[in-house]
């Protein structure tokens, strides 16, 4: 199992390290704590990305034509 630290996760997710820490604290990103340090698995990061997806919407003017 590959583990990412905060800096590696911030690079993977293209977020600032402080944002990663804030989202960990808020419970948005699952994590592992080993030796007092925070780590993430690829599955943790994938879960966060999937949970933060915004559903597509129909372009303006197409509503009600179903």
Walk me through the structure.
The chain has a domain of 46 residues. The chain is mainly α. The protein has a two-stranded antiparallel ribbon with strand order 1-2. A hairpin with a 2-residue loop joins strand 1 and strand 2. It is built from three helices and two strands, in the order H-H-E-E-H. It is elongated, with a radius of gyration of 16 Å.
Radius of gyration: 16 Å
Helix residue percentage: 40-55%
Largest pleated sheet: 2 strands, antiparallel
Order of helices and strands: HHEEH
Number of helices: 3
Oligomer: single chain
**SS content category:** mainly alpha
Strand content: 5-15%
* Separation, N- and C-terminal Cα atoms: 46 Å
**Uncertain ranges:** none
Rounded average pLDDT: 92
Number of strand elements: 2
* Backbone shape: elongated
Keyphrases for this structure?
two-stranded antiparallel ribbon; single chain; 66 residues; mainly alpha; 41% helix
Short description:
This protein is mostly helical and 66 residues long. It is 41% helix and 9% strand.
Topology, please?
Elements: H1 6-13, H2 17-25, E1 32-34, E2 37-39, H3 42-51
Antiparallel strand pairs: 1-2
